[in-house]
Amino acid sequence: MKHPIMKCARWRLQWRSCLICVPAAMLFFVLSAQAQTDAILPPLGGSGGGQFIARCPQGQLLTGFELRTGDDVDAIRPLCITAYEPAEVGPIERYPSKFGGDGGGDTRQLVCPRDAPIVTGMFVYSEGFVTEIVNNIHLFCGLAATTQTPSEFPAAVFDGPFYNIAWRNSYRPNSLDHTQRCPAGLVAVGINGRSGIWLDSAGI
Description:
Layout: E1 7-8, E2 21-22, E3 39-40, E4 44-45, E5 50-55, E6 61-69, E7 73-81, E8 83-85, E9 88-89, E10 93-94, E11 99-100, E12 106-111, E13 118-127, E14 133-142, E15 156-159, H1 165-170, E16 179-181, E17 187-188, E18 190-195, E19 199-203
Antiparallel strand pairs: 1-3, 2-17, 4-19, 5-18, 6-7, 6-12, 7-10, 7-11, 8-9, 13-14, 13-16, 14-15, 18-19
C-alpha cells in the first residue's frame, strides 16, 4: 500500500508554485494568510504512468475529488472551494483537467462534509500484480484554520473491490503506514501523483 504525494505549504501574500497543502488562517483571514516554504510529501501507489501535479487556483483549498471508477480508480480530478471562515465555504469548483484514463463506468464525487470542508489528510490503498493501481481513497477532513483537531476516522471514503480476498482480511483502513496528513498548521490545496490509463498513485 502506498500513500500519494501530499504537498503542503504556507501562504504569503503571493502563492508559490507546486503547492499541495498550505496553512489556512483563522476565520476571515483565510484568503490573506501569509505563507512560507512548500512542503511536498512523496506520492504512494504504483510507479507506472507519468507524473502530474494539480493545484487549486489561487485563494482556493482542496475539498475532495471527482473520481472515475470501476474495479479501481481510473481517473481523478481535484475539487476546490473558496473558504470564507473555518467552516464556511463557497461552491465546489472542478479542476480543469482530470488525471488518468477513460475506463471504468462510474463518475462520483468524494467530498469533505460541510462542517469540516477542507482536506487535511488522505489514506490510499493500491494493488495489482503487473500494474499497481489506486484501489481505495479515504479523506480526512478539517477546517480552514491553522489549528486542527486531527480526526481518527476518514470523513469520505471510496473503496474499490479487492483483487484478492486475503488482502481484505488483513486490510486496516486507518493504518498509519498508508495515511498522509498535512503537517501542523497546513491544509491541502492540491494533489500530485502518477497516471496513465489508470490512476497509479496520488496524494494531497
